[in-house]
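User: Predict GNAT family N-acetyltransferase's structure from this.
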Amino acid sequence: MTTPTLAPVADADFEAMLALRIEALRESLERLGRFNPDVARARLKSQFRPEWMQHLVVNGERVGYFTVEPREGELRLHHLYVKPAAQGQGVGAWVLDRIKAQGRPITLAALRDSRANDFYRRHGFRVVEEQDFDIEYRWEAFA
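Assistant:
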């Protein structure tokens, strides 16, 4: 794996990040009959906080991004998207390792029936709630 580097996110990055989010989620959402670009735009817009976001760059190309919201006593991972062509190369695991290194509990939601669920379970996240469209996960740091 080529180790990614991080780059800051600016307001002007919104459209490129939306395109990446759609590219990363499209297959899962289409399989579930839930693909809607307008909904994707609205969801990203509602959680677009550049100060919590980082681009993932490999060999000079933005291949993904993630968003970590600091909360009281924990971190909330809102987004971890990697372009399909860059998936399976350790980029997502590298991000989780960086977040876990902060030693705080991590919560997140993954789309039900997406491959992301296997990814998060492999990395020690446990299911805490199953909802209609998402599954809520939590990871605890153990001393």
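Helices lie at 14-31, 37-46, 91-100, 116-122.
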